[in-house]
Every structure is written in structure tokens, then in C-alpha cells.
Write a structure and sequence with these properties.
Elements (H helix, E strand, L loop, with lengths): L11 H7 L21 H11 L1 H16 L5 H12 L3 E2 L2 H4 L9 H7 L1 E2 L1 H14 L7 E8 L4 E8 L8 E3 L7 E2 L6 E7 L4 E3 L7 E4 L5 H17 L4
Parallel strand pairs: 1-2
Antiparallel strand pairs: 3-4, 3-7, 4-5, 5-6, 7-8, 8-9
């Protein structure tokens, strides 16, 4: 995703839709609502790669997820949103030397930065780990109207068919979608499906997110990280 404020690429929003229909593997379950424990091997690897502060950021994340299990859902989404919004926005081409790279939450935190997709993805998996039903969460592509470019946020639905609350790295305040008139929904997805999100609600389901190659690559890398943290071959 492009850095906020940079000139938009031609037809960027329309191009996003093409990403959802690439052939990929079956989805893998990762970061469930079981207690998150980061293994020493993973911590040591991230510390060697990104420095001593990377270890502490990951331990702070672990602490947040371990202590937040009993919180009310609105408290959970506020804590997670504020925690990740302390990270820096960095364009993929600068941060990962790639046009469009979806970082795992571990990569995002250890490197202390990422683009809007990385913010939304880290919040999504963290809230699932805190016990929020996946069906209440969607990663939502929008057009940021003031910036005139594609953007990703996390949408939280307190009830089926309810108006979603928007978790966004551009602002810390979590607001109902009707109050985010600066955002125009385009597509949304989670581990269960893909929706055409032209409306303020979830919209019409149009496909399975298992077709999304970047999503599958992300899940595979997360699975590899958590195999290594558990000392598995």
C-alpha cells in the first residue's frame, strides 16, 4: 500500500480487485484464541534481525494478549488498536523492497513498521487470539477520499448486520463506519470469505478468501513462525 499523501497510481482501486482471484492453497489455522506464548527461538531470531527492542515489542504484544482475555470486546479492540498504532507507517517498497508485501504480526512488530495492510492484519489476528469471533472481523479495502488512494482498515461488527466500527492506523479513534465519510468501502475479507463492500455493511459475498494468494502466503509464513517458536522441525 502506498504511503499516505503520495500521488495515487492510475486505477489503483480497480487493480485491487484482481488480487482476490489468484489460485492458491487451502487456508491454514493460525493465531487461534489459545494463549499466545512466543518461544525463545523466535524471539532470538527477531532480536538478531531487528535489534534488542524487537524482542521487547514482541514480549509487550504477548503480555497484551495474555492479560486481555477477560476484557470486554470494546476494551479489547481499543487496546489492540492503540497498541499497533504506535508503530510507524513505512511503504512496502522501502520497508520490504517489494511492491506489495503482507507482513505477519511478528514481522510487523519486530521491524517496528509497515503499511496500512500490516496494521490491519496485525489487529485482526490479535483480536482473534483475544477470543473475538472471526465472523465479527473483516479486513476492508477502502478508498481514502482525502488522500485519493487505496487503503485498508479493520472492521468490527458487534452483532450480525450491525454497522461496523473502524480500526484505522490513520486515527486512534474507533468510529462507526457512518462517521468515516472520508472512507469509501471497496472489498472486505477474512478467513471465511470475500465480500463486495460497496455498502456500509458487510455487503454481498462474492468469493472465498482462500483464492487470495497474498493471504495464503501470509498464513503460510505465520504457520512457519509458530512451528519454529514451538521447536518443531
Amino acid at each position: 500500500m502506498k504511503r499516505p499523501g503520495t500521488p495515487p497510481a492510475s486505477n489503483r482501486i480497480l487493480a485491487v480487485g484482481g488480487l482476490f482471484f489468484l489460485l492458491v492453497l487451502t487456508a491454514l489455522p493460525v493465531l487461534t484464541d489459545e494463549t499466545l506464548i512466543l518461544g525463545e527461538d523466535l524471539l532470538r531470531t527477531m532480536e538478531k534481525r531487528y535489534g534488542a527492542e524487537a524482542r521487547q515489542r514482541l514480549l509487550d504484544w504477548q503480555d497484551l494478549l495474555q492479560k486481555g482475555k477477560q476484557d470486554d470486546e470494546l476494551v479489547k479492540i481499543d487496546k489492540v488498536n492503540r497498541f499497533f498504532n504506535t508503530m510507524a507507517f513505512v511503504d512496502d517498497r522501502v520497508h520490504w523492497q517489494a511492491e506489495d508485501y503482507w507482513a505477519t504480526p511478528v514481522e510487523f512488530l519486530a521491524s517496528k513498521g509497515g503499511d496500512c495492510e500490516d496494521f490491519a492484519i496485525a489487529k485482526y489476528f490479535s483480536l482473534i487470539n483475544l477470543g473475538i469471533d472471526e465472523n465479527k472481523l473483516t479486513l476492508t479495502y477502502v478508498k481514502a477520499l482525502r488522500l485519493n488512494q487505496a487503503h485498508m482498515v479493520l472492521s468490527y461488527y458487534p452483532r450480525p448486520q450491525a454497522e461496523p466500527l473502524i480500526l484505522d492506523n490513520l486515527i486512534d479513534a474507533i468510529k462507526p463506519s457512518s462517521q468515516r465519510t472520508d472512507l469509501q468501502p471497496v472489498y472486505s475479507l477474512n478467513g471465511s470469505g470475500l465480500w463486495l463492500a460497496k455498502q456500509r455493511g458487510r455487503g454481498k459475498m462474492v468469493g472465498d478468501s482462500s483464492r487470495l494468494s497474498r493471504w495464503q502466503d501470509l498464513l503460510a509464513r505465520m504457520t512457519d513462525e509458530f512451528h519454529r517458536k514451538e521447536g518443531k522441525p
